Amino acid sequence: MDLENQKRVKDITEKHGAENVIVVLGAAEAEAAGLAAETVTAGDPTFAGPLAGVQLGLRVYHAVEPQFKGEVDADVYEDQIGMMEMVLEVDEIIEEMTDIREEFCKFND
Amino acid sequence: MSLDIALGKQKEEVNCMRLELGNILIKDVQFGEETKVVDGVLYVNKDELTNLLLEDENITSVSIEMARPGKSIRITPVKDVVEPRVKVDGPGGIFPGVLSKVETVGTGRTHVLKGAAVVTTGKIVAFQEGIVDMTGPGADYTPFSKLNNVVISCEVKEGLKQHEHEKALRMVGLKSSKYLGEAGRDVEPDEINTYETLSLLKSVEKYPELPKVAYVQMLQSQGLMHDTYVYGVDAKQTLSTLINPTEIMDGAIISGNCVSACDKNTTYHHLNNPVIHDMFEKHGKEINFVGMIITNENVYLADKERSSDWTAKLAEYLGLDGVIISQEGFGNPDTDLIMNCKKIEDKGIDTVIITDEYAGRDGASQSLADADPKADAVVTGGNANEVIELPPMDKVIGDARVANKIAGGFDGSLKEDGSIVVEIQAITGATNELGFNKLTAKGY
Amino acid sequence: MSKIRIVHYINQFFAGIGGEEKADYKPEIREGIVGPGMEFNKKFGDEAEIVATIICGDSYFNENLDEAKAKVIDMVKEYNPDLFIAGPAFNAGRYGVACGTIANAVKEELNIPVLTGMYEENPGADMFKKDVYIMETKNSAAGMRKAIKTMAPFAIKLAKGEEIGGPKEEGYMARGIRKNYFADKRGSARAVDMLINKLNKKKFETEFPMPNFDRVDPNPAIKDITKSKIALVTSGGIVPKGNPDHIESSSASKYGKYDIQGFNDLTSETHETAHGGYDPVYANEDADRVLPVDVLRDLEKEGKIGELHRYFYTTTGNGTAVASSKAFAEEFAKELIADGVEAVILTST
Fold it and tell me: Do C187 and B354 touch (CB under 8 A)?
């Protein structure tokens, strides 16, 4: 996750509290999604950005995950994400995201 | 004995070459009134041996001294090391084609004065002979520090050409060994090992399940100080051919070279070729050691191509599954080594090659002058350029000043106090490519 | 026992200053840790600590080698550390070259142990693995934690002067240095064992891995060259006058693509050489000597070739890593093919 976005996530979390923040990702691959997810939970694994060594433990989901899909309007989802959903490795992404959350997320819901 | 049985026995004998090697363990050498072996001590009649050697009119003076293991003695320059052996039964004699007639050897029984050796030294012939320290750090790098050495130094006639000088010294070593070997003729050996090679088809018939392997020995053949002789024939003049492992044990191959001392095969190395011994160890158990191919290392490209093609052709013809290839020397013959390896691998035969390295004093340079990804199984005798400091010895047999001139030495190698800073290249047998030693190298 | 003092060198990205746009960042030193230094200190525990971090942009470093080296070394001197760590650089080419260069320079000038880390294909690896210890890392910064996990204890070993084991066990890139030792068995026995394993398709380890010569097989000849589009590519460093893209005189970190449409001849007014490895006088007088545009225009007119491609590609071959050259060519070869070029005349010096 680039430095700009890391800063934004950090600032927002500081302002509103970790329990009130959810991060939604749109990465194209499981690995990239995993890295971003790790960044907002365990800290920037590359140690290059503001979240280096900062463990926010936030709730984080990818747009194709059921936890997000289930919460939004089905038509809007189909419209905006339907196409991408067909090309992405959805299962892999879900697996990667779940692993990260299990290991690093502060919240167990 | 009935005719049938007589014929049957004959048939068995013609399909196999069997040699009994009887080791007479020598634990000391001394001068004595008679040349003989008694209770493991080799006594040498100095005058008799001296006179024998002076029969060659090119030799003007001879001096003989003993160098025993652990003593503070340095021998340099070392021309050749030879092991005294004598043929007690079977056709032919030791060093066929050179000191004995050309009859095929390798069968019957041969006695060995094990633990003794003849070391020839003398006024420097070229700049490539070596050092043997009988004690100290240098002793770890040469197998000859562990032997009871009869060291022979010779002066030759004024104006003798280099070729003849080399030959004269070569013959001194061989003659002396033969002479001393005779002392073992009627002595009962302490141990007897039997080595047997069946004819190819019989061998395969006997061990149908075992992989067929052969030993490919490369012989140095690059000219003066770089030659090898097979039954007296200059290896430069040979085509790759088959030979029986036991023939080597009777001196079929002798050294006329001193490449760099570290990877030169002395006649002692040939007689005790460790690849042959270790192949026999596993013969009939994990491998079928069917035989041996010898090939040369000439300097001309056409010869290199011809010899390596021929070697690969023979390997294929024998239906081999695998070979061990040993090299002699470095630099120029690295090309022959890789040619042999590649061509044999291309025939679908597995190879393991034994070589040594010249990776520079810091070990960072490329070890071999040629390479190929097919040479994926290499055994190394170590980096010959590694530097060692040899402490001064109480006695020097030969001439220590040569340290400044021999390969591996440099101006200033020899220090005032008698110590020598030199590459292990200068130590006789240090990085031997028959795999004689435990020295090896690894990468960091 | 006091803690081992370490100075750490990183680039602008890992310092959180910015990406490519900030690659010209001049050397700056800060007390304590910055960025990845955090994880290093964590792994060092009580034994060592990073006392200062030097930050330098990759472009600045590579384009101002002498000044950058001198400046950084002065900064390191200030802190009088026991050890110097650069990177790790993973697969970032210019960063890797900078890390290798500065680590080597510190080692030579200050005579302290140095350590860096990179991915095996990083051009800096081939260039410096003989001179400095380079820890093997993954190919992206995502492997930071793992890299530091191996680098930290190794750094402590180096600082303490402990005996260093072989590359496989310690995790650094094989430096190609051979050292002798005495094995348990003699060579012939090892050879027989090796052969038996090889014959039985069992694992064995060669005592000397063959060097990699990496030859390129030539393509088949062009059928009809009078119809072909030919392009010029050079490692002789020919660039438009003024070297607008600052291609380095040695150890190039980039290549250039320049338009020669309308040029029948290169002159001292229009072109020059950036290459620092040969006497530039003659190439500067007439760049055609290295990039033969004039001759090819003649051949074009005479109908001997189909066409001279409008773009040429150039870089400096001097000291440039094989891996870099490979990477450049992989990139622009695609463009050449897309542009319908059939053959390339590659000039070098």
Answer: yes
Q: In this complex, which chains have at least 3 CB pairs below 8 Å with chain A?
A: C
Task: Please tell us whether the domain made up of C4-170 is placed in CATH 3.10.290.10.
Answer: no
Q: Is the dihedral of CA B337, B340, B343, B347 positive or negative?
A: negative
CATH 3.40.50.2000 in chain C is located at 4-170
Q: Which two tokens stand for residue A105?
A: 């997320």
Cα distance between residue B74 and residue C172, in whole Å: 42
φ, ψ dihedrals at C317, nearest 5°:
-80, -25
Which residues sit opposite C135 in a β-bridge?
A: C117, C172
Q: Are strands B212-220 and B288-297 parallel, antiparallel or unpaired?
A: parallel
> Cβ contact (<8 Å) for C36 and A49?
no
Residue C1 reports pLDDT greater than 90: no
**Collapsing DSSP states into helix, strand and coil, what is residue C9?**
strand
Closest CA to C117 of B221, B28, B77, C141: C141
A17-42 per-position pLDDT tens digit: 999 999 999 998 898 999 999 999 99
CA distances from B259 to B119, B219, B275, B329, C216 (A): 17, 11, 20, 6, 36
Q: CA-CA distance, C112 to B76, in Å (whole number)?
A: 42
CB contacts of B436 in chain C (<8 Å) are 186-188
Ordered by start, the domain boundaries in chain A are 3-104
CB contact under 8 A, C182 and B372: no
CB distance from B371 to chain C under 8 Å?
yes
Q: Which of C188, C199, C211 sits opposite B435 (nearest CB)?
A: C188
- Cα separation, B187 vs C93, whole angstroms: 74
B-to-C residue pairs, Cβ atoms closer than 8 angstroms: 161
Separation between Cα atoms, residue B183 and residue B6, nearest integer Å: 35
* Residue among C178, C190, C184, C180 at smallest CA distance from B141: C180
Q: Which of residues 40-69 of A touch C (CB under 8 A)?
A: 45-50, 52-53
In B15-134, alpha helices (H): 46-54
pLDDT digits (tens, 9 = 90+) for B243-299: 999 999 999 999 987 668 899 899 999 999 999 999 999 999 999 999 999 999 998
B258 annotated active-site: yes
Q: Which of B191, B194, B195 is nearest to B245 (CA)?
A: B195
B344 has a chain C CB within 8 A of its CB: no
pLDDT higher than threshold 60 for residue B127: no
Question: How many other C-beta atoms can be found within 10 angstroms of the C-beta atom of residue B14?
Answer: 9
**What's the pTM?**
0.79
